[in-house]
Design goal:
The chain has 377 residues and is of the alpha+beta class. The chain is 27% helix and 19% strand. It is built from twelve helices and 13 strands. α4 crosses α5.
């Protein structure tokens, strides 16, 4: 088995900008903080699983060290990812596993014997997962085994599964214990957690947020797309996990704050020319677009939020305005200084356009001129 794959446990070589899942940059590395209680370290296991342990033996640990830690039962092998004062800030995002209210212990730095046994256990994970899927299919269980992780001492394995309904896997545990002769732990995960464990590249061109930094998953609803005036297209709104994208929640608070003073969109505006209905909004510029409900398609009228409120106020009094827009609202499409529009340069259809004939004529004339025989004097 390749050393990089076996040691990194489902992640690429550790450096900035790689697929190190849930990697943390220690920006307090060069700061000496003697008052902080630095005996707790963060240890990463396979893919996105990490936990926190107390360094009771005062070992000199650094990021990248392979250590043997306390498990139930036996011991497990993991990689230290963070030490120092920043660990307690990370514990606010990721819950630590406690036993009787205390942290589990770091036993020692892993010896060569421990690492060899660990690698031997890791080499069995893929075949164990394939066999477990066959056993679950034979038992007609409506579940998907997504991943298998062996403990460092090869006495226990964690089986990660996805199920839409409640599954009675007691018979499955008996069969697995008899087949593999190990202790079995079944752990149910969601579709977002599975995507984080597998990893991948999102439509934005960057690594998945669930694999790089998100630890707690907040429910995402279609209301977030409605507030941001995004088309409710399920193919574009869904991520690689099949659920709504987590990034829909990133900017929804800014949109909600910007729309606090907006009039309701379901209220039409009555004018002497006719009735106008809401079509769309430019939220951060404070511009609303209304279109006439007539047989002739007309361009939407752009008005400010204050003008829309004024028209609604007059309509409630039984008055109709002469014109919807009392003045022309400028809708500028210029970008801010310092930014350039590079979308046209990187257009996906730029190679589909036919080349200009003028170029071809020039090339053709050059080739013919080179082929003409020269006059001998």
């Amino acid at each position: 088995m390749d050393d990089q794959l076996s040691i990194e446990r489902g992640c690429c070589k550790k450096s900035a900008g790689t697929c190190s899942k849930l990697e943390v940059y220690d920006w307090l590395n060069d700061v000496v903080n003697k008052s902080a209680d630095d005996d707790i370290v963060e240890v990463r296991f396979k893919n996105t699983r990490k936990d926190y342990y107390r360094n009771v033996n005062n070992l000199k640990l650094a990021a990248g060290d392979i250590v043997a830690v306390e498990a139930s039962p036996g011991h497990d092998i993991g990689i230290v990812t963070l030490t120092g004062a920043l660990v307690k800030h990370q514990m606010k995002k990721h819950k630590a596993t406690l036993i009787n209210g205390e942290f589990r212990k770091v036993y020692r730095k892993a010896k060569s014997v421990d690492i060899d046994k660990w690698r031997e256990a890791m080499s069995l994970e893929h075949t164990t997962m394939i066999e477990t899927r066959k056993i679950a299919a034979d038992l007609k269980l409506n579940m998907k085994i997504g991943d298998v992780e062996y403990q460092g001492d090869r006495t226990k394995a964690i089986f990660y599964y996805i199920a839409d309904e409640r599954v009675d896997f007691r018979q499955l545990i008996r069969v697995l214990a008899e087949t593999f002769r190990i202790r079995i732990e079944m752990k149910q995960i969601g579709a977002r957690q599975e995507a984080g464990r597998i990893g991948g590249i999102g439509p934005c061109g960057r690594e998945l947020c669930c694999a790089t930094w998100i630890g707690n998953f907040v429910s995402v609803t279609t209301n977030a797309a409605r507030y941001q005036e995004i088309s409710l297209n399920p193919q574009k709104l869904a991520g690689q996990c099949g659920k709504l994208k987590c990034c829909l929640n990133f900017e929804v608070d800014s949109y909600i704050d910007a729309q606090k003073d907006f009039p309701p969109s379901n209220v039409p505006l009555d004018t002497e020319d006719g009735r106008y209905y809401f079509q769309k909004a430019d939220i951060f510029n404070g511009i609303l677009y209304y279109g006439a409900n007539g047989h002739k398609p007309l361009a939407p009228v752009a008005i400010s939020v204050e003008r829309a409120k004024e028209v609604i106020r007059l309509n409630k009094k039984g008055k109709k305005v002469e014109k919807l827009a009392d003045k022309v609202v400028s809708v500028s499409s210029k970008t801010s200084p310092g930014f350039e529009n590079v979308i046209a340069e990187e257009s996906l259809t730029r190679f589909d356009e036919p080349k200009s004939r003028h170029r071809k004529k020039k090339r053709f004339s050059k080739q013919n001129s080179s082929r003409r025989p020269r006059n001998k004097s």
